[in-house]
Input
Amino acid sequence: MRWVVLFILAAILTILLYAITPIGSQWRIWTTQAITITSKASLVYISSNDSFAATQEGIRAARFVLDALKNKSTDSAKAASQIYDNLIPVENYGGEYTTLEWFCKYLLASDNEKKKFFSDKFAASFYDFFAENDYARLKEYLQRKYKLEQFVDQNTQAGQDRKAFLEDFILFNNPRREEWEKTSKIIGVLNLKQGDTIADVGSGPGYYTFKFSQLVGEKGRVFAIDTVKEHLNYVNSVSQKYGIQNVETIQTGGDAIGVKANQVNFAFLCSLYHNIYATAREEERNSFIESIKQALKKDGTLIVVDNALVKDSELPYHGPYIAKELIIGQLKYYGFHLVKDYAFIPQRYILVFNKD
Output
C-alpha cells in the first residue's frame, strides 16, 4: 500500500514540474501547434437550414416575393427588392437574399431588359428550374423556408430534405454569386488548362462543374460528385440540353468520392470541409480523404474553399464556418501540405494543398 501511495505522489509531482518548468513548456511547444484565438465565437460552427435568412425582415420580404409570384404584383416585387437592398449589406452577405432579389428585379424588368438576365445560359437554366409551372418550385421554397404554408411532410426527414435541396440549389447556383464570392478569382487560383481532369466534390447542382467544363475543354473531364441524386439529375439534364460531353456525375454515400486511382489533376471542395471536419465519423473521414489522395495524380492538387470565422466588425456571415487552421492541421495529419492560401473576401478563404 505504501508503494502505491508513493507512486501516486511521484506522479503528481512529475505533472506539477512539467506544468511549471521551462522544460515542460518547451516540450509542449515542440510537439503542438497553437491557434491564436481572437474571437469569442467557436472555431467551427455547423448551422441548420434555419440559422440565417429567416429573420423578421427576411420573412416580411419573402411574403412580398410570394405575393409578387402569385398575383403578378409589381408593387410587391418592388417592396421585396427594397427590403433586400437594406438587408443584404448588414444581415446576409451573399446568401439567398441576393437570389430572391434577382427574381424580383427580373419581374420588374422590361422585355428587352429580361434578355440580359439570360446572357449566361446556365443562369437561364437556373431560372427555368424555378419558374417552371408558374414558379412552382420557388413558391414551394418560400413557403417551406419561411413557414408561410403548412406542408404535410414538414416535420419529417423527407420534408427537411426537400427544403434543404431547394435551399442548396438557390445558394449554389445563384446567378449573382460572382458579385459576392468573386468566383472568377477562385477559379483563377486553379489555373485550369485544356485537357485537365478535376473532381468537383460536393458539386451540388453544378455551379462550378459547368465553369470547369468550359475551361478544361473537350479533351478534359469534370467529375461532378454529390450525395444528393436530385442535384446530379439537374447536372445531367443541363449537360444533355447543351450537349456537354466532358461532365460525368457520380453519386456517393459520402465516405469516398468514387473516382479511380490516379485520375485527376485537381480535387475541389467548396463549402464542404466544415462538415467533414465536424460531423463525419473518424472512419468515414479517413475513407473520404484517402479516396481523394488515391484519385489525385502524383502532382495533383487539392483545393479547399470554405467559410471563415470573421471579426464582429466585418460584414456578417450567418452560415457554417471553420477556422482555416483546423483544416490545415487535419490535412497535414492526412498527408497534405499547404502551399498557398488566398482570401478575396473576408468570409471565404481558398487553401491549396499538395500531397506529401
